[in-house]
Structures are given as C-alpha cells and as structure tokens.
Amino acid sequence: MDYPLRFVDQLRPHLKALRKKRGLTQAQAGALVGVSQARIAEIEANPGAVSLEQLAKLLSTLGATFFLREDTPSGGVLYAREEPSTTYEPLQDAAVNLPAGPWTTRQMSDGSVLVTLSPGETGAPAPQSTAPGTLLRQLQALNPGRNVKPNSRRSFVIRPKTGSW
Asked: Is pTM, for the whole model, over 0.90?
C-alpha cells in the first residue's frame, strides 16, 4: 500500500508503526541498523533531522523503502511504501553458540539472531559473569566468523560477517 508523504512530519507515525509491526523495540531496531536506541528515538521523533542514508537503512530494516513518483510534470513527490515480505539469507547455521545460562534466541527477518540473557530463570546455570563486556567476549569467542554486537546490557545481535550492517 502506498502512503503519500508531502511533509517530513507525516513520516513520524509511519516509522513507529512499521517498527512495532515488525515486533522490534527501538533498541533492537537500532542494533540492526547499527545505531543506539536513543538515535532511533530521535529519528522517530524528528525524521527530518536524519540523513537520507540512515533513514534508508532504517526503512530497509523495517521492510519499507522510498520511491519517487511523478504526479505532475513539475516534479516528483517522495512516498514511503511498505515492501512485500522479502526472504533474507539467514545465518548459514541459524543455531548460535551460547555460554551457559538462561538465554533466549530470536531469528530476525534479516537473518540475524537476537540473543538475550533472561534474568531470574531457574533450571539453567547462571553465567559466571554477567558483565556486558564479558558476555560480549564470550559470545564472540563462541561464534567466530560472525559479527556480535551488543543491543543492551543483556542482549546481543549475531549476524554473518559477510555483508554490511
């Protein structure tokens, strides 16, 4: 479905709705784009103050894109259009290696895997250290050949090293 945008302010509700439709928090969307949660909040609050490159990355992550459609001979109008579901190349081995602990994993639409250390779960041994730097180094050591990026203090995004963020 096409959503005509004649003013940048009209993009605000669309960005937030697309992110929520994909089931992503601002922090998760930021990790997939390669920016912080605070930057995603800034982009959603004021999409006119973001570079076109960052906006295009965010829209791609959310399954949307910009295109130009000529309405009149005098010029083009910027539109946002939701893209149909795309099949992304998943991690070659979707199972990621995790240190001991109560971890949860979630396969993302771009083929990356979101892993989160669940606090207070019983039945699984707690990791020896839950310091973010320690957990990051452990995940990087257990998943060679993959990019491991922190998403928050207890969650990380793991994706293949081939390709770019």
From this structure: no
